[in-house]
């Protein structure tokens, strides 16, 4: 079951969903629009390594925007902090942004119950595209869950700004299956 716009508003008012800041004009029929935060991060190495931290460079989107270039992965973030201890959030790019050739999430649209923070966006443009801090870039939907809830307590909890991959922190899981 997906929450409707009026139910997202009610859940934001009674605390079942946390959206900060909350703006009624960002509520859609069955989702909530999120805006692009002011910070972008790119990786600096030619080859990324999943077994170690990768170096990054961070910059702020100025008032004239920033041109995203094809072939580059940009880590952005939502301006809003979004989460729920009750519902499963899913984030997708807005169709109007997709029609400009921008992928907003590559493979990770699902959020965990219990995560609260700014969402990292994996921005990949098809062609050069100027983006602006504060533009509506994605939408989050909320789904009801079934069964006992074990809230998220992972490495990205309370994220503020774009979060580079911390996959390397999970090396113990890799070593458990490696020969």
TrEMBL record:
It is an enzyme of class 3 (hydrolase). One of its GO terms (biological process) is dUTP biosynthetic process. It holds the Pfam family DCD. One of its GO terms (molecular function) is dCTP deaminase activity. Its EC number is 3.5.4.13. NCBIfam families: dCTP_deam. This is dCTP deaminase.
């Amino acid at each position: 079951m997906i929450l409707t716009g009026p139910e997202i508003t009610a859940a934001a008012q009674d605390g079942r969903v946390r959206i900060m800041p909350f703006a009624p004009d960002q509520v859609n029929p069955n989702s909530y629009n999120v805006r692009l935060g002011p910070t972008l991060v790119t990786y600096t190495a030619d080859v990324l390594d999943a077994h170690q931290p990768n170096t990054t460079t961070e910059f702020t989107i100025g008032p004239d925007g920033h041109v995203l270039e094809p072939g580059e992965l940009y880590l952005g973030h939502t301006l809003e902090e979004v989460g729920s201890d009750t519902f499963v959030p899913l984030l997708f790019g807005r169709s109007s942004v997709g029609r400009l050739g921008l992928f907003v999430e590559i493979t990770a649209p699902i959020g965990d119950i219990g995560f609260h923070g700014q969402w990292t966006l994996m921005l990949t443009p098809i062609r050069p595209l100027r983006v602006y801090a504060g533009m509506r870039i994605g939408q989050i939907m909320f789904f009801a869950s079934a069964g006992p809830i074990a809230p998220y307590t992972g490495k990205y909890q309370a994220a503020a700004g774009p979060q580079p991959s911390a996959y390397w922190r999970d090396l113990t899981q890799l070593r458990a299956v490696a020969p």
